[in-house]
Amino acid sequence: MSGRLVVVGGDAAGMSAASQARRMDRDLEIVAFERSGYGSYSACGEPYYVAGIVDSIERLVARTPERFAHMGIDLRTRHEVEAIDLDRRLVRVADLEGGSRFEMPWDQLMVSTGAHPLRPASIAGIDLPGVLALRTLEDAVTLRAMTEHEAERVVVVGAGYIGLEMAEALAGRGAHVTIVTLGPHVLEKTLDPEMGRIVDDAVREAGVELLTDTTVDRIVGDVKATGVAAGDALVPADLVFLGLGTAPDVALAEAAGIPLGVTGAIAVDDRQRTRVEGVWSAGDCAETVHRVNGQAVNIHLGTIANKTGRIAGTNIGGGDARFPGVLGTAIVKVFDLEVACTGLNTAQSAASGFDPVVGIAKGRAGASYWPDAAGMVVSVIADRVTGRVLGGQVVGGEGTGKRIDALATAIWKEATLDDLAWADLAYAPPFTGVWDLINIASRNAADP
Ligand code: FAD
After folding, report:
1. Which CA distances in Å does 214 have to 88, 171, 180, 198, 423?
2. Neighbouring residues of 199: CB distance < 8 A, sequence distance ≥ 6
3. Which site from 56, 245, 265, 384 is most exposed, i.e. has the minimal number of CB atoms within 10 Å?
4. Catalytic positions, please?
5. What pairs with residue 288 in β-bridges?
6. CB-based pocket (< 6 A), ligand 1
7. 46 alpha carbon to ligand 1 midpoint, in Å?
8. What distance in Å separates the CA atoms of residue 142 and residue 132, rounded to the nearest whole number?
9. Cβ-proximal residues to 40 (8 Å cutoff; 6+ apart), any chain
10. Structure pTM?
């Protein structure tokens, strides 16, 4: 079809779409606008830059504007799209460095504006200086500079995976870290309580103070944050990090009249088409479908952003690709633990109308006689009636977490407990027992 594709938001989804559209259609003009100073960057690497494991911020840039230019893609950083005009089929753009404003017409539009960290106005003091969150590479640079000079005491509000990664990064930099979370355990939106409590113990053993079931009432301070009022405690802080989760960045799309779905993210079909002709969306700002319960979901993961972006790019470039949905498979390192999940947890399974049964297997990633084998726990969640596996979780030492991929693949193909109890999984003494914990957890779920 050719003409001009304009991309709003130049990171994972947007630049995957742009790159794939270029592969499909050599004649398409492609212009991408990115508000921050970097496009095509790894937000996932940001905590490790703050920790000092990644030495320079440039290493987190996958492709520079110059490399995109070689591909015939015009990526303009420090350019913010301020409005989308669907009637005139153009975007209004502010050049944040040059100071000019201009309009750019499009034949096809890709909305890939991502998700932003939650900053609830209901918490007094949340806008004080020293209350930071993490999204762009510039945020990571600011946070690292603070940890090098002025952040001896840090409060992390929220215990999702970004909060935990940052707690580890900041503790590693010598800060005294307190995590305050409303949940009964960390990672409460993804892990079942029994698995979450293992992670709680690891966090505390690493020297981080963890306050669960605790509400942050307000952030205190006059000219900058000096502490957090949480329950009965006033926890002092030089830096407050917000790890309260993320919300799809849909204000621009909504203002333009691009319809949202039930989750509040942009509604798309399996080709990543919005409900407006010629307008596409993918990544954190777009809905997708959960393969286990068939429901619309909006899960913010780089894996999903890259894949949905690529699907959009194929279709924009004249091909025909359909996105098959997600399981929400995720993995995170929390101090000495690897923590991974896929599919639905027990509460989500019940809420989706299943009758969940859980099998748990505790053991080691190695034969019983293998020295220093990492400990690990595997849980498998299934429907009691049909035996269909709905979800799984893995918590264990080094080298254990990617076992989640076997569970994810099984769930993807709608395996049952019987399939997994007898699955032919690899064995040698340094890695596992003859019965892998996935086999055993599945057997335990089948015969609770
Ligand atoms: P984004 O990456 O948010 O990109 C959207 C871009 O649009 C932004 O750069 C934004 O500046 C730009 N933008 C927004 N509005 C405008 C506008 N009006 N004009 C111009 N530009 C605009 N996922 C994993 O799978 N594994 C991980 O380990 C992992 N770790 C993470 C760690 C951190 C600290 C963070 C923040 C995220 C992590 N993620 C991880 C999530 C992953 O980074 C996101 O899912 C992914 O980046 C989403 O890509 P996206 O392109 O949809 O959105």
Report:
1. 50, 21, 6, 19, 42
2. 164, 185, 186, 187, 191, 334, 337, 339, 395
3. 56
4. 44
5. 297
6. 8-9, 11-14, 33-36, 43-44, 46-47, 80-81, 112-115, 134-136, 162, 249, 252, 283-284, 300-303, 305
7. 11
8. 9
9. 10, 11, 12, 15, 61, 62, 63, 64, 68, 75
10. 0.97
Q: Write out the DSSP string of 103-168.
A: EEE-SEEEE---EEE---TTSBTTTSTTEE---SHHHHHHHHHHHHHT-SEEEEE--SHHHHHHHH
Cross-strand bridge partners of residue 338: 333, 396
Atom 1 of ligand 1: nearest residue by CA position:
114
Which of 46, 84, 113, 299 has most ligand 1 atoms within 8 Å of its beta carbon, as the pocket-test mutant? 113
Characterize the bridge pairing of strands 90-95 and 79-85: antiparallel
Give residue-wise pLDDT tens across range 127-180: 999 999 999 999 999 999 988 877 799 999 999 999 999 999 999 999 999 999
Q: Ligand 1 centre and the CA of 14: distance in Å?
A: 10
Q: Whose CA is nearest to atom 53 of ligand 1?
A: 114
Q: How far is CA 46 from CA 29, 41, 143, in A?
A: 32, 9, 10
Unique residue bearing structure tokens 């990543």: 272
Alpha-carbon gap, residue 165 to 199, rounded angstroms: 12
For 251, the 3-state DSSP assignment is helix
Across the strands, what pairs with 383?
356
pLDDT band at 232 (very low <50, low <70, confident <90, very high): confident
Cα of 239 vs centre of ligand 1, distance in Å, is: 23
Question: Over the chain, what is the mean pLDDT?
Answer: 96
Residue 426 Cα, ligand 1 centroid: separation in angstroms? 36
